[in-house]
């Protein structure tokens, strides 16, 4: 892929590989073309969340995006795409780091789902106690 800027994003159990190329805002997610990212995420809040790095640096609609995303749900995937876009923008122009960092867009959210323990219903939820 010639002249692409690449960034990997992770959130919860989702992984997104984001390729940015200068263009007019075309979006391809998992080999399927969409008019915008909302076509894939189907939620305007998640779309705004994912596109925040481009908005912060004022480059909305200036890049064609090729995104490969897998794992988790749409919420985690939008967070992964967000981090991937931010990291790809750093490859495009390292001077954007100050703007992105002050908005917290380069920080990987470390929160993961706690595993279920045996004898419990969920990670911490115990079965209902009965006296008799």
Number of domains: 1
Strand content: 15-25%
* Major beta sheet summary: 5 strands, mixed
Kindly state the percentage of residues in helix: 25-40%
What is the overall silhouette? elongated
N to C succession of SSEs: EEEEHHEHH
Oligomerization: single chain
Q: Determine the CATH topology.
A: Ribosomal Protein S5, domain 2
CATH architecture: 2-Layer Sandwich
Q: Give the rounded overall mean pLDDT.
A: 92
- Provide the gyration radius in Å: 18 Å
**Number of separate strands:** 5
Using the coordinates above, name the CATH class: Alpha Beta
Q: Strand arrangement, largest sheet?
A: 1-2-5-3-4
Given the helix and strand composition, which structural class is it? Answer: alpha+beta
SS field, number of helical segments:
4
Unreliable segments of 5+ consecutive residues: none
In whole angstroms, the N-to-C terminal distance is 68 Å
Pfam families: Ribosomal_S9
GO cellular component, one term: ribosome
InterPro entries: Ribosomal_Su5_D2-typ_SF, Ribosomal_uS9, Ribosomal_uS9_bac/plastid, Ribosomal_uS9_CS, Ribsml_uS5_D2-typ_fold_subgr
Keywords: Ribonucleoprotein, Ribosomal protein
